[in-house]
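Quick note —
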Amino acid sequence: MTSQVITLVKIPISEIEEWIRTKHDLPPLLMDFRIEEKSLILSFREEEISEKIEGKLTVVNSRRKRSYRKRNRMKTRGWEMVARITNSKGQKCTVYRPFVEALQDPGLPIEEQKKIVERILKANRNRPSEESILYFLGNTLEYLQKQREQSQEKVA
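Predicted structure written out below.
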């Protein structure tokens, strides 16, 4: 007869949640957690849903079909973060130093700005789409505009 050693590891969800929060900027409330295949799924939400709305919500089939669309992730390793902002579309974005330094001059034409952003992304071994270029350009320009407004308010 052979013996078998089984090791059991029990980690509270609160510790996993805390560990994930230290790595990512997440909404404040942990709404749900579950295990799906070989993955732990944590669902976060921004704020409490009011009781009126909550009563109207119905649970649709809990098994959703997963789309396997490849996400366009840009490599940003080695770039210094300047700021985390919420852009005009409500997205939480990170603004990186290479873009801020390259786009400081407000007199650059938009096409030149696009070429600069594309060149920076390609230098970090990315293959940026037009949407990605516009995303980084737009976020950086919004950040620079806010910085200019704040510096003018301090002078006045």
